[in-house]
Structure formats: C-alpha cells, structure tokens
C-alpha cells in the first residue's frame, strides 16, 4: 500500500510502498478514501525535520535531555548510533482520516466491516491507503455526510474540545484568535451552537477565508482592535476567548486579555507562549484554561489503546464523543466555504510544498484522496505436516516477527557478525518498522504479515520479537511448521499459552530457544559451574529496575505487566542456578496486588530439594543505582555477582574474584548459542524445558500476587506436563500439594536434549 512518509533527517516527503498494518485486538482496519492535512501541526513537523541537528535540539530540548541521559548510561558511541538510527527512521504523517472498514480485531463489537467511519490519532489515522486505528478513535459516519468532510472530524474535535473548556453558554460572545484550520472550524462550530463570534488573525488569507464563510473577522493589525471588537457587541467584551494560534510570541495571550470582559475565560488551544500580563489578567480575574487535543482520553493508553471507557456521569465528552459530535454537525458547518484543495496521494509531496510556500492565498484545508482499491492479501493456506527438522546445509536463514529497539540493539548486531547467518524476511504489526529495519540489516524481504512470512518457507529459524501478548501464539505456530524458534521472553502469559507452545515443541525435534539471556552471561555460567550439585542452595537476587511511567505499554492488561514480562528473567536465572524442580511460589507486592500494575514485588520460590530463591524486584528505584546483585549460599560455598561485572567466590576456605570486561548480560553469548543450535550442536544453557518451567513459575507468581498466598507450580495441562516430565494433577493450580512428581523436569547440563525437542 502507499503511505506518506517524512524523513526525520532532512524533512523530505515521499510516497512509499509499505506492507499494510495488521489488525490487532481492539483495532479497526480502515481503507482510507480521504485524509486531512493539518496545516499547523504538520507544517511544524516538517520544519523540525528540515532543520539541522542543532535546530532540532533547540526545538526539542526534552529529547536532548533524553539523549544526554542515554549517553551517561550507554556511552557516547552507542548513543550516537541510536541517534543516527532514529534519524534514519521515516515517520508517518497525519491524524485525521475517513474511509471504509475492511476488518475489525477482537474486542470490537460496535464497528463492522463495510461501515464508513472517521478516525483520529497520530500514528494511527495517518496518510496511508490502509490504517489500523484503536476502536475508541473510530466513529461511524452518518448518512448524508461525504467522506471528504468526515475526514475533518479529528481536527474538528480539537476545536470542539476548546469550546467545551470555555464553558460558555450558547449566545455568549466569543473571540477566536488564530484563524488557521482549527480556528476556522472553531468559528463554524460556535455558529452551529448559536454563539456570537469574532475572529482575529494577522494573515489576510485567513481573514478572507473567515469572511467568505460569513464570519466577522478583523486583522490583528487593526488600530484599536479591542475597541473595534467591543463596538461589534455594542460596547461589550468577550465572555470567552479561544486562542487557536501557533506561535512562540506572547501576543495572542496578551491580546486575549484585552478583548475579554471581567472574569471571562481564556482557553489555550494552539501552541502559543503563555505569559499572561498581570495588568489585564489580574485586574479582570481572568481564568486561563488549557484544551488537550481531541478531548478526555487523549494520551491515555488505557482509553485509546486498551479500549477502556470512562464513566459517562463523570466524563460525558470523551474524544470519541467529540469526533461523533463533529460529524453530526457537519451539515451545518459549511465546510465547502473552506474550499479545500484536493491532491491524489501520489502527489503528497506537492501538497506539502503548497502547504509551505503558497502564502498569498494559502488555503486552510488540504485533502489527500485515495483510490479506495487497496486490499489485504490473504496468505496461502498452510497445508501438510512439516518434514523432520535438520540443520540447514548452508547459511542459516533467520527471519523476524517484530524488529523493535531491543532486537536492533541487543540481538541483530551479534547475528550479523556470524558469516553463516543470513537475514531472510521481517514482519511487523505496522509495516513501516519492517521496511526500515529491512534496509538497515539487509533482510531479503519484507513480509506483509507474520503469516505471509511463515507460509513462504524462506526461513530456517524465526525470531519472535513482538509484544508480549503475541509471543505464545507466534511461538506455537513457528514450531508447528517445523521451523526452529527463538522466542524473546516471556514465552507465554498464561498456562494455556504455554500449553500450546509445549504441544507444538514436545517430541518434535525442532530446536527452540527462549530469550532468557542471563543464564548465558559469563558470570552466571561460571557461578553455576562452581556450585555443588545435589546440595540445596539459597539464592538472593536483588534488582533495582527503576520506575516505568504509568502509561508504559508493559501496564496494558494484555501485556501482563512487569512481573510476567521482566521478573521472569530473574526467576529463570534462579532456576538455572538451583537445578531442582520448583514446587511453590509466593509473591508479595509492595505497591499493588494487581500483577499488571505492580511495579515492585518480592518473589519467593521453593524447590523440591529444599532450595529457595528470593527475588527482590524494585520497580521504583532511582536512576544511577547498580541494577542486579546475585548472592548464593550453599554447602561449603558462597558467591556474589555484582551487575555481571564481577563474581566473588568463597569455596574451600579460599576467596577468588573474576572480573568480566563489558559486564555482559549474555546477549552475545545467547546469539552464538542460537547459531550453534541451528547447526545441530548441543548447548547446555539453551534448555527450552527450563524456559517453560521458568515461564510457568512466572505465571503462578502472578496468581500468587493476586491471591496473596502460596501457589503450587506443577503443570495442570497435558502437553505442558509431558514436556516438563510431569503428569497433570487433579484440583487445578493454586495449591502446592497433590500430584507433584519427584523427578525434576530441569535437566543437568550434561543431560540437555535427552528428552523433548532436540537441541532444547
């Protein structure tokens, strides 16, 4: 499909062919017919892209601070590489569109294929032939409203939210300062509701556009502007002033103070410098209010992405309702008078040139039109049973589902150094990431979807690097097709997902490796080799992980939270060191008993040989603290690992210390292990059965946190029980007793691969 892209490096516009997005849970797939170019917002984005690095730094000081923090943590060289990578990533543009629904994801019950809809949201409702937009940013288009006018809905919602924030009753006197697209729509919405309006702008073209629409509008340069506006209302001043301009000047806010009556409200809608002069704002007791984009729900991932609803009694006007209200009012807005210029999507570069250069008769609105013929292609149906797995004869072809920051920073660089590896296809949920990373890393092709890639047969190994909620599904499908698997942690978020993975893997002979990289770290491997076999151990693992913002994707209900997504790492390391079967787990939350929202937890695991592991995970610690600290006590041995940089060992009355250059957490070693597995070699640390155990313990740790008690970890589903060398017990999960076999499901290094999948 065609998509309009902006180069972050030089600000150039291109129209590129990229794979269409994949419809996901809670999302709506839309074939666009029109999308609206938001002149103010998108012009500013273009100007930032076209500026030099120094110019970009001046415009985005927040990002400069992030770069400096990264440099302190990772070093100048690595930070430079990250900045260059970001500059090489093209960006999508646009956030207001309309078209036809072609598919809906699970959880969407009020939108159906074939419906005409309008949609909003930067990064979602972009200038592209097909877009995937979360349900709460999509509304049906009423009968009689053309798609080209429906494409105005999102920008109209910005204007409508400003009106809501003014809290002025119909009939009130309202001044709109700034008559770009948002200002023009604000005037039209105010008129539809019965307000008495006056517009102000310094651009003659904007004044002409307002007057063409039948509005009273005055140039900012008008002598005695305040008196002129007051005379329009018989000497009265404005009940409310909406500032919809975009400028670094303080003039619009200062002007608002002179035009407003006593105790009026000034609403900041546009991007302006707010420095109210005391002389007007204090003496008139003016109220200053900000309007947040399309309305309540904006920037809240729980509303926009997870599909949560707000209580209508407390939040009646959400951004979704604002979108719907604009569409309801379209017949009364006279959008025809805006005389929007329409460009075919292929001519998007010309549309943006016009946006930047045609000042004398600049139009408030520019539309992109789409042919409406783009289609999603169905992948060929997979048929037949996979052949018995065998190592590739030549180069190992590695494909990837997902290619985010972690993969490109921690995994792909190590694989590229291996001369026997070739990157095959790459797929991502939104397509654009796959295109960019394909160019960067030299993937042979970009798959339209994971299903298309898997059906192509062009991979000896598939790396599952997508978001957590899809790991189990993709991992099971890769294994069912007889393809070697690398699955980033977690392997699954529930026992049901682990059951599907185990069912596909157990007895298949297909190599599988999970992304529990700590067990590959040199310090951890050396420690395990020094520990006595058969004797109980006490493991204390302390992690100062640091706080994540509350809107981080980890806290999406579908992604499982930090316990399932990150603490599983440390559970696996403890399991690797102990070598005995976990029997029960207890979890205490410091800040929450909800496994998804909890930031800090303590997990205690008890093993069949009486070993114990205590994992203290601090999710609110300050930056700068050392991250990971492991201590182990056993019969005649004690040891300490500090941030993987050193291992101190006390054994047989002697103390020894090993220092590890680079403080490797095992990523490079893990990737070398993967390539060895693909050549048919055995790797002790690459124990997929152990990965399934660790994943199951993490799932039960989440159950224990929610229930506040001790929970058994024996599997209760047949394939998982078989893969772990157990038999399912009656009574279900949640009790430590009953049906737990004495045989451990975790094999010693010299016995790896003797059961289950070969090379596991």
Q: Mean pLDDT score, rounded?
A: 89
| Weakly predicted, low-confidence segments | 729-760
Question: Largest beta sheet: what is the strand line-up?
Answer: 30-29-28-27-23-26-25-24-31
The tally of beta strands, per DSSP, is 31
Which strand-content bin applies to the residues?
Answer: 15-25%
Helix content: 25-40%
Q: What is the straight-line distance between the termini?
A: 40 Å
Assembly classification: single chain
* CATH C-level class of the largest domain: Alpha Beta
Number of helices: 24
CA gyration radius, whole angstroms: 30 Å
At the fourth level of CATH, the homologous superfamily of the largest domain is: Dihydrodipicolinate Reductase, domain 2
- Structural class based on helices, strands and sheet pairing: alpha/beta
Sheet with the most strands, sense and barrel status: 9 strands, mixed
Domain tally: 4
Shape: elongated
What fold name stands as the CATH topology of the largest domain? Dihydrodipicolinate Reductase, domain 2
CATH architecture of the largest domain: 2-Layer Sandwich
Structure, described:
It is a single chain. The protein is of the alpha/beta class and 760 residues long. It folds into four domains: 2-151 and 339-369, Quinone Oxidoreductase, Chain A, domain 1 (Alpha-Beta Complex), CATH 3.90.180; 154-295, Rossmann fold (3-Layer(aba) Sandwich); 400-514, 3-Layer(aba) Sandwich (Rossmann fold); 530-666 and 673-751, Dihydrodipicolinate Reductase, domain 2, CATH 3.30.360. It is built from 24 helices and 31 strands. The chain has a nine-stranded mixed β-sheet with strand order 30-29-28-27-23-26-25-24-31, covered by helices on one side. Strands 3, 5, 6, 7, 8, 15 and 16 form a seven-stranded mixed β-sheet that branches. Strand 27 and strand 28 form a beta hairpin. Helix 6 (153-166) packs across helix 7, helix 6 (153-166) packs across helix 13 and helix 15 crosses helix 22 (667-678). The longest helix has 20 residues, at 688-707.
